[in-house]
Amino acid sequence: MRAVVTRVTRASVTVDGVVVGKIDEPGLLVLLGVTHSDGPEQAAKMARKLHEIRALRDEESCATTGAPLLVVSQFTLYGSTRKGRRPSWSEAARPEQAEPLVDAVVTELRERGARVETGVFGAMMAVESVNDGPFTLLVET
Predict the structure, then answer these.
(1) How many domains does the chain have?
(2) CATH number of the domain bearing residue 120
(3) pLDDT single digits (tens) 18-63
(4) Could you tell me which InterPro entries the record lists for this protein (predicted)?
(5) CA torsion through residues 62, 68, 73, 79, sign
(6) What range defines the domain where residue 108 resides?
(7) What is the pTM of this model?
(8) 3-state secondary structure of 125
(9) Known catalytic residues?
(10) 3-state class of 47 per DSSP?
């Protein structure tokens, strides 16, 4: 499992002109990708990392501050550009494997007490964010 995590002052995701998830205060925008070898163990580990990562100002985390997270599924995080000019998506998990694992990360975050907003799995989404810093990390399990 792989996530691009950006510290933001606000972020939103829109589908078909409708805002489906947004955070209007400092928190984390999480673009989350799943690969073939991922399972429930990786989902739980990713949720813990996302909740506890000290990426907010003053080395705080969402766990310590209650800051929100906006989690957006993104299979393209497993795109490979090693050969040629066209990305290969062979490392990205198929939707029937990936969607339940993205949902498991969100569920685990909420069970930990995190405030979580989401995009819509598989939809064409417009993601807007105002980066804070900028501060962006690649988080892997």
Answers:
(1) 1
(2) 3.50.80.10
(3) 999 999 999 999 999 999 999 999 999 999 999 999 999 999 999 9
(4) Daa-tRNA_deacyls_DTD (IPR003732), DTD-like_sf (IPR023509)
(5) negative
(6) 2-140
(7) 0.96
(8) coil
(9) 74-76
(10) helix
